[in-house]
Known about the structure:
Number of helices: 4
Number of domains: 1
Distance between the termini: 52 Å
Order of helices and strands: HHEEEEEEEEHEHEEEEE
Shape: globular
CATH topology: Lipovitellin-phosvitin complex, beta-sheet shell regions
CATH architecture: Roll
Largest sheet: 12 strands, antiparallel
Number of strands: 14
Structural class: mainly beta
Amino acid sequence: MDSKCSAWLLTSVLSLAACGDQNASTASAQASGTAVTAASSAPAPAPAAGEVAITKHYPAAGDKTTRERTQKFVMVTKEKGHADIEGTSTYIVNRSEECLAIEGKLCSKVKVTYTANERKSAIGGSNMDRSSPTAGKTYIVEAKNGATSVTREDGAALTPEERKDVEPHYRHFAEPKDALAALPDKVKVGDSLDDFAKALAEQMADTDDGEKPTVTISMKVKAIRDEGGKKIVVLDVEQTNEGNDKKLGKKKSKRKGTMELRADTGLLVASDFNDELENVFPNGVDSMKGTATEQTKVTYSF
């Protein structure tokens, strides 16, 4: 593998890692936005001392969501016979969404506006900053008959560059899994949320390329606090991913951090993660290792 190829692969890995949305926090936000409010035949019993009740809010037409995500990567490519190549990247993706239609249990149509979508990168000392063509633009994402379509707000088709930036965020829009249903009705500090963690892991293992990674997630309630009159449930999260990519080889990642859910909705409001990343390229010799951080903030208007 020559140095030009190494730099290209480093850029590819950084881009794929940033756009994939394959992490517990994003899966939680997406999976929890898939169905109408579940009916209840009887009121749930009051939580015991130290417990907090979880109310599960599913979207309705008119619901609005704002998502802000910042990711930072530091990756080093090690190639036999060549000097190491270091790459650093910061990705900022902020978008607002409005649910336009419900079909069955799904939000089947959403309007999304990208208020920011940019990458600041340096690969081997070369600047590779990029501003996405989606920044400042609005798109319509719609699920029909098990397929997802994306158009501009006026109905026009997307350019290939726009499609590359929008579609990864909505690749399971037409067939989401309801991870929110796996949340317990009540939680207290120290509880392990095994069913919820399993549901998120199953969603993330469902990839488009058919090469299902092995995803393991564990979650435990770290704290429950008051914020603006709302109860916030803080979860300690650990996640491991292992998979094999045809182009990039064997991939491994370890993630540790926190997710914060609003008890009155069950929805994600914030997350903060640290990742360890590793790729061994198909030749079995060259590799790439690094670290990443990710912060997410989500706000809702119902």
